[in-house]
Design a protein that fits this description.
seven-stranded mixed β-sheet, single chain, FAD/NAD(P)-binding domain, 12 helices, about 400 residues, 17 strands, four-stranded parallel β-sheet, alpha+beta
Length: about 400
């Protein structure tokens, strides 16, 4: 006897959006979510650009959006500009509220999972849940089949005693000292007195020193003159940046279990943004003609393979970013990129570049050594990151 039509293992972004979309489009399906922690959604801020989603996706995602801005800034040593495309953010708090409302008593928290098959979930207490389909959304796992760089960050959300004066997001402030790879500060003004500020690095290794990054943020805030305030919350993470890999071997590792999110390489290869892919996958699952385990596995595996093939250009750019120049000069590649017009920048973030876009990105005076760039372009493989580096 089945416990549900679909069991979602893990209460992260991808599975949460799937649960919400299935409740809206397929209310006849019984959906159960099991999450090992005390709450779903973790402690995150997910952001996206207006061009990342379709009009229909924007419509159903609107309740999740905690803040939206019509434009954003980027800052580099030799280039500063506003990019006139919209930007929005989703908070874990808003996500939890909406997804928990969609699931009701079908959300099982503090329910650790021991093992997963395409049609069953074995819990740590020995119980076994059955369903015609199980979707695994437990996040990134170390894999020898992905070659990765890392985007690591620590963010702090502050409520200041007086207005901070930041009018729009600063997606990249690379005017800060460059260390441990490409470093920039990311700023989201949630209100005239509230800011999320993140110290971010595109680094070769995933080791994160929270105390060091806290000191960097304190120095940045003091220089900005924001004054005294109250720390509301803190978040940190290490996102994968795809350099290469074997998508077929990665998919085979799922053992036929329908898999979503970072474990299926469903993230923007260069930026690490995962929300747009999670939205697309939620829509894909909600419209699936066959919601059996085999049907969903075929659908999701084909989707992952198609995206991997379509995004090879981004992995090439990533190899240039990580291997074609000195670590403290990686910012020059992004500085060079932001000479391009707003519509092309939007297509880049949406991972929808056409052939002319790809030529324009690489055109002009090279931001790195031509010899180094040619060496990277000629290389068939980049160094493989050891699985423990993703921990």
């Amino acid at each position: 006897m089945s416990d549900a039509d679909i069991i979602l293992v893990g209460g992260g972004l991808s599975n949460g959006l799937i649960a919400h979309r299935l409740a809206a489009r397929r209310p006849n399906l019984s959906v159960l979510m099991v999450e090992g922690g005390a709450k779903i959604g973790g402690n995150h801020t997910w952001s996206f650009h207006d061009g990342d989603l379709s009009a229909a996706e924007h419509e159903w995602m609107a309740p999740f959006v905690a803040a939206r801005w019509p434009d954003y800034d980027v800052r580099f040593p030799k280039r500063r500009r506003a990019v006139g495309t919209g930007y929005a953010s989703v908070t874990s708090e808003r996500f939890r509220e909406i997804v928990a409302g969609s699931l009701g008593d079908r959300l099982h928290l503090e329910t650790p999972v021991e093992a997963v098959t395409p049609t069953s979930v074995t819990l740590r207490d020995g119980r076994v849940l059955q369903a015609p389909a199980v979707i695994d959304g437990r996040g990134q796992r170390p894999s020898p089949h992905l070659e990765l760089g890392f985007q690591k960050f620590l963010g702090q959300e502050w409520e200041f005693d007086r207005p901070h004066g930041v009018e729009r997001p600063v997606v990249m402030d690379a005017t800060v000292p460059q260390r441990d790879g490409y470093r920039f500060v990311y700023i989201l003004p949630f209100s005239p007195t509230r800011l999320l500020v993140e110290d971010t690095y595109y680094a070769d290794r995933g080791a994160l020193d929270p105390d060091l990054l806290r000191r960097h943020l304190a120095a940045y805030g003091a220089e900005a003159g924001w004054g005294a305030g109250r720390l509301v919350r803190e978040e940190h993470g290490i996102l994968p940046i795809a350099l290469g890999g074997d998508i077929d071997a990665l998919i085979a590792g799922s053992g036929g279990v329908p898999t979503v999110g970072l474990a299926h390489a469903l993230f923007h290869p260069t930026t690490g943004y995962s929300l747009p892919d999670a939205v697309h996958v939620a829509e894909l699952v909600a419209r699936a003609p066959d919601v059996s385990a085999a049907g969903l596995a075929r659908l999701l595996d084909a989707h992952a393979r198609n995206l991997w093939a379509d995004r090879s250009y981004f992995r090439l750019l990533n190899r240039l970013l990580f291997h074609a120049g000195r670590a403290d000069e990686r910012y020059r590649i992004l500085e060079h990129f932001y000479r391009l017009p707003d519509p092309l920048v939007a297509r880049f973030y949406a991972a929808r570049l056409d052939f002319r876009d790809k030529l324009r990105i690489l055109a002009g005076r090279p931001p790195v050594s031509v010899v180094s760039a040619l060496r990277v372009l000629a290389s068939s493989r980049s160094p493989v990151s050891r699985p423990e580096e993703t921990a």
